């Protein structure tokens, strides 16, 4: 019988919570501004974790720089996670830019434009 809440998901949730605080409090790189850790996917053997992040109010170039800065700080963040988590091995961190928020904002703008266009056609 499969578990409803497998260990990898529990570890991913804990890593996400801890990383959000660590990035906010410990990372001093000016390229890393206000960052949201939207999702963490941990491999089945807990060897690595893909961390999906979004920079609030950043354009594409700033997001790439932020992701590069976080990947540069991955070793430091992993060592800090090892102090906070009770795991035998802490997964290696790979930061990725999460484009879901960008797509959502783009779709929202398109919907707003379509509604405004429809309203202007009704007035005419």
Automatic annotation (TrEMBL):
One Pfam family, short name please?
A: RBFA
GO MF entries: ribosomal small subunit binding
Stretches assigned to coiled coil:
none
Q: Which GO BP terms sit in this record? A: maturation of SSU-rRNA
Subcellular localization(s) per the UniProt record: Cytoplasm
Q: Which InterPro entries match?
A: KH_dom-like_a/b, RbfA, RbfA_dom_sf, Ribosome-bd_factorA_CS
Give the CC-aspect GO terms: cytosol
Keywords assigned by UniProt, alphabetized:
Cytoplasm, Ribosome biogenesis
Similarity comment text for this entry? Belongs to the RbfA family.
Task: List, alphabetically, the NCBIfam families matched.
Answer: rbfA
Describe its function.
One of several proteins that assist in the late maturation steps of the functional core of the 30S ribosomal subunit. Associates with free 30S ribosomal subunits (but not with 30S subunits that are part of 70S ribosomes or polysomes). Required for efficient processing of 16S rRNA. May interact with the 5'-terminal helix region of 16S rRNA.
Quote the subunit structure annotation.
Answer: Monomer. Binds 30S ribosomal subunits, but not 50S ribosomal subunits or 70S ribosomes.
What name goes with this protein? Ribosome-binding factor A
């Amino acid at each position: 019988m499969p578990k409803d809440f497998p260990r990898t998901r529990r570890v991913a949730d804990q890593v996400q919570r801890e990383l959000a605080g660590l990035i906010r409090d410990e990372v001093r790189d000016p390229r890393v501004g206000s960052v949201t850790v939207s999702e963490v996917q941990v491999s089945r053997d807990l060897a690595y974790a893909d961390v999906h992040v979004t920079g609030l109010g950043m354009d594409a170039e700033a997001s790439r720089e932020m992701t590069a800065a976080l990947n540069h700080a991955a070793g430091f963040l992993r060592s800090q996670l090892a102090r906070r988590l009770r795991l035998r091995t802490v997964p290696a961190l790979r930061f990725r830019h999460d484009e879901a928020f960008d797509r959502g904002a783009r779709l929202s703008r398109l919907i707003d434009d379509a509604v405004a266009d429809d309203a202007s056609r009704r007035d005419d």
